[in-house]
Structures are given as C-alpha cells and as structure tokens.
Amino acid sequence: MSDVHELVLFQLGARVFAARAADVRRIAGPLVEHEDEAVGETALGRPWDPRRGLVVKASGNERTLLVDGVLGLKAVPESDFQPLPRFVSDVLPTGALAGFAMLDEVPTLVVDLPTLVREGEPGAAGPREETRHA
Amino acid sequence: MREERGSGAPDPAPRAPAGAAEPDAWYFSVRIAGGRYALPAPLVTEVVRLGPLTRLPSSPSFLPGVFTHRGEILPVLDLGELLLRRGTPPRPGARAAIVHAEPWRVAVLSDEIEGLIRVPRRRVGPPPAAQGAAEFLQAVVLDDVGDIAVLDMGRVVSVARSRSVPS
User: Fold this and answer.
1) Which sign, positive or negative, has the C-alpha torsion B94, B142, B124, B25?
2) What does the pLDDT look like over A98-125, one tens digit per residue?
3) Closest Cα in chain B, distance from residue A39 (Å)
4) Which residues of B touch A86 (CB under 8 A)?
5) A54 is in which domain, residue-wise?
6) Could you tell me which chain B residue has the CA closest to the CA of A43?
7) pTM for this structure?
8) Which domain holds residue B80?
9) Partner of B79 at 20 to 30 A CA spacing, among A49, A81, B113, B138?
10) In this complex, how many residue pairs, one in chain A and one in chain B, have their CB atoms less than 8 Å apart?
C-alpha cells in the first residue's frame, strides 16, 4: 500500500493550491500579531481578501502566508502525486512549486511553503539561482 | 502524412530504398504566424487535443499552463509567443504536438499542424546568421511549398529560460 500524505488546501485569489500539512504550524485568523511576519505578495500572487493565514517556519522564524481561505485537509496517496515537469521547473521563476497532486482528477499545484515565504524575504537569493538545473 | 492519427504516434520515417545514396530527412512541420517551422520527426511522439488547462502562477506568457494527458501532466509551450511574441490563445480541443526532447516533454501549440514532411538531404541547409527567431534554429529545409525553419529544442528551452527570469 502506498504512503498517504496530508495536504492543506487553500485559496489564493481565484486559484486553489495545496501544501504539505506538516509544513503548516497552525492556521491563523486575519490578524497577524506581528505585522512583519505576514507575507502577502508571493510567487503565487496576492490574496484578494486575506481572511486566513498559514503559519510556516522558515529561516528559523515563523512567517504567516496570508490567503483568502483555507478549504480543509485532504489525505492523498503517494501515487496521486506527480513531480513538476522539467520544462516547467526550468522556466518558472520560483522554486516554491513542488509538483502536482491529482485531486478529483484535477492537477492541483503543491506548494513548498517554507521555500515560498523564504523567496519573499529581503535579500533572498533569486529563486532561479536556487532551483535551476545544471 | 498530414493528418493526426487519433492520439497515436506519427508514422515512423520509412527506410530508404535499397541502393539509395542517402535517406531523406523527416520533419514535423507546424505553422506559426504564417511561417513554417519544424522539428526533427523522431522528437514528435503524437498529436493530441488539449484538455482543460491548469494555469501556473508567475508563468511566462509562452507557458499558458499544463494539462493532463493519459495521467501525465504536460506543459503547453506556445511557440508563437516564444519565437515571435505572437501567441496562439489555447482553445479547448486545439491540437498540440507532443515533443519529447530529453529531458523536456512538452505539448507544442501552434496556429496549424502540417504534419510529417520528407525532404531530400540535399535540401537541408544551415540556419541563417542569428537574427530574430534564427537563434532557435538548427537548419533550414526547402520542400515543394517553400522554406521551413527547423527548431533546435535545446536552444528553444535555453532562450525560454533566459526570457522567464524576472526583471
């Protein structure tokens, strides 16, 4: 029997994304205690109406990715995951996309949340340099 | 062969007749913005109809999204947008050629698919000096209809990468 991974599904703008539940420390409300912890604009875009936050540990600190909504948790078997196609990883200017999970036969992007929020930090290396294949 | 064969592979290039000096070259030809472009035929594994696209965040304009084909997620490459900045809006059901040039596997979108063409080797020449889309080319061939620019997938991807770096 294949492994099962738990994903958090969240909405950002018009799109639905998934992330490994293990990367999310907790789900926060719309108010972030320390404003500098909040991450709004990322490679995924910007939330239209940030009502929730996904609290992630990145670079030793907690950061809160602001999202439009958290849709829930879903257990997905390993066999329903696919890596990012090589062409996509070669040309996308972000290293925060980990691959796809097939959810109800729809390919849903799985986001590497720690990488996503790190890319937005001041002085972060360009994502292309981090992820580009040799 | 000018028509797709369902979702099957294009016909393999037939062998040259015994005694022939040199086999003909086979290419897979498409039309983009009125121009004719081709890839070496062995790189094109099949012609398919696009399913619903999943768009990708932060993606460059020549990568309109991905779709699922027989359980495999394939990126769609809009060659017109990349080569000439004259994109082909992907329509559901539009035909795309699946190109497998290690390590890349993409569904190439174009204005029109011409299909397989056979050209005598003597009609295959070097690309012109680099200008415009010439940076993508590995050869130019001449058939009964006219010139065809043969694309080098390695260069296509290399230029795609350089154009997708955020400014």
Assistant:
1) positive
2) 999 999 888 999 999 999 998 877 666 5
3) 16
4) 103-105
5) 4-131
6) B58
7) 0.81
8) 25-164
9) A81
10) 77
